[in-house]
Amino acid sequence: MKFGKENEKLEFKKTTAELSEGVISMVAILNKHGGGELYFGIRNDGTPLGLDISDKTLRDVSEAVSNHIEPKIYPEINAVYVGDTHCIHVKFEGDNAPYYAFGRAYVRVADSDKQMSAAELKNYILKHNIGHGAWDGDISRKTAADVDVTILSDYIDRANRAGRIDFAYTNNAEVLNRLGVTEDGKLKNAADVLFCGSPNLEIQMAIFAGTERLTFNDINRKSGSVTKLVEIAETYIRNNIRWRVVLDGSIQRKEIPEIPIEAIREAIINSYCHRQYTLSQNNEITIYSNRVEIYNPGRFPEGLTPQDFINGKERSKKRNPLLAQLMYYSKDIESFGTGLKRITEACDEASVKVEFEMLKLGFAVVFYRPDEKFITTKKMSDVVRTVVTNVALKKSEQAVLEAIAKNSTITAEQLAATAKKSGRTVQRYLDSLQKKNLIRRVGSTKSGRWEIVADTESADE
Whose CB has fewer CB within 10 Å in the chain, the N or C terminal residue? Predict the structure, then answer.
């Protein structure tokens, strides 16, 4: 398992013997992006090596940061599992640049750290003292030539179908001008993130084995435009939550997710619409055994609570008004200030508990996974992906059923080889499945085939 690649906001160190180099990398990232992540126990190609971690190890990291970075920062430092290996994860933020490591200022260039010259440091300070209005209306370095034609033309089609704009796609420059998102040939930031994206606009997605951030079952990072990242995030959750099938006598199977997909999508879109893009943190999808969290950097509006919007007592307070307007045109958001109410209503209808967490540096929507047993969609066929409460299968029986679903003519010998079990054991599983009226044999022993006659639910072996 590889963890990913180093980039401008992510640094790997093999051991804590590289602690000084790690401190320098943190400062370089802080000065370029305002924060990022550092892992000890991972090679620079993303291969986890692991560490022996004690309380002293974590204190050493904390003290190195405290003693050698100015102005002070207060990172999150935790021991985590990456696959089967134990590593140290340092997550850091700061909005008081420039930062110095061992008395020197550094800046991140690709995945390396460059010491600033006196002239570079002076220019850096002057630039960072310039104030700005709403970020999404500022001018980026991108032009119409940087816009993904497929994304923009699809966006215009959706906005037309929604009846919220009345012109068709012609070419990038003309369409962007009509949308009011260019100035002197350059894109405004809202158009940049929505239609272009960048390697530094990422979403981090992870699955944890339990209810805490300790053992990763999976971790993934993707970069790109907001439009693409919304779809990537939704697909990741779809593929890693549980589904059940309702058999109501109709021709079409009804597959029901444990969390309403419309609520998930609304939360993902809101997380990009309202995030604070000047912070270095990524949007995050984290899936635990008991919940799914969708996080965006950027604090909730001061003096307000989520309940104010759920009750409909407050108007939307838009951090990114131009981006919100663009997403309204394409009906990605239905109307301003109604997202939390729509999420709540969808979850209430599905009897799913949802909470909204106002954090120090961000905001999270937390969906609690129901207690009832579902079958995970990942790595399962449509035939096997279901729940029937009066049938319980061992994992080995489920594996045999899955193999039959993929190949109805599979032989007992082939099943034994696939399952790495003896022929007698596999025959016992086949007999059990037939007794439960879940499979039947059609035709002769040699030239016949298996037929699945009912859906199943897995049970622990």
Answer: C
Separation of CA 337 from chain center: 23
Would you say residue 107 lies in a domain? yes
Determine contact, residues 200/9, Cβ cutoff 8 Å: yes
Q: How many domains, in total, are found in the chain?
A: 3
Q: Does residue 378 carry a pLDDT above 70?
A: no
For a pLDDT cut of 90, what percent of the chain falls above it?
48
Same domain, 229 and 273: yes
Tell me: do 150 and 95 sit in the same domain. no
More confident residue, 254 or 131: 254
Q: Which residues contact 249 (CB under 8 A, 6 or more apart)?
A: none
In the structure encoding, which two tokens stand for residue 208, read together? Answer: 């944890």
E-only strand ranges, 177-335? 182-183, 186-187, 198-208, 215-224, 242-246, 254-257, 283-287, 291-297
Q: What torsion do the CA atoms of 152, 271, 367, 231 make, to the nearest 10 degrees?
A: 20
CA-closest candidate to residue 384, choices 441, 440, 439: 439
User: End of a domain among 324, 354, 378?
Assistant: 378
The whole-model pTM stands at 0.58
Secondary structure in 3-state letters for 393-441: ECHHHHHHHHHHHHCCCCCHHHHHHHHCCCHHHHHHHHHHHHHCCCEEE
